[in-house]
Amino acid sequence: MPNADCRERLLSEDFAPRRLTPLQMTPLDGLHRRLGARMSPFAGYELPLHYKAGVVAEHLHTRAKASLFDVSHMGQAILGGRGAATAIESLVPADIRDLASERTRYSQFLAEDGGVLDDLMVTRLPGREERLLVVVNAAAKAQDFALLREQLPQLELGVLTGRALMALQGPCAAAALGQVLSDLEDMPFMGWRAAEFRGAGLFVSRSGYTGEDGFEISVPNHLAEPFAEALLAQPDVAPAGLGARDSLRLEAGLCLYGHDLDATTDPVEAGLAWSIGRRRREEGGFPGYERVRAALDRGPARKRVGLLPQGRAPLREGATLTAPDGRLVGRITSGGYSPTLSRPIAMGYVESAFATPGVTLESRLRDNRVGVEVASLPFVPHRYFRGHTGKDRP
Amino acid sequence: MSGERYTKDHDFLRVEGDAAIVGITDFAQAQLGDIVFVELPAPGKRVAKGEQLATIESVKAASEVYAPVSGEVLEVNAALEAAPAKVNEDPLGEGWLVKLRVTDAAELEELMDEDAYRAFLESEG
Question: How many CA atoms lie within 13 A of A255 on its CB side?
Answer without folding.
Answer: 27
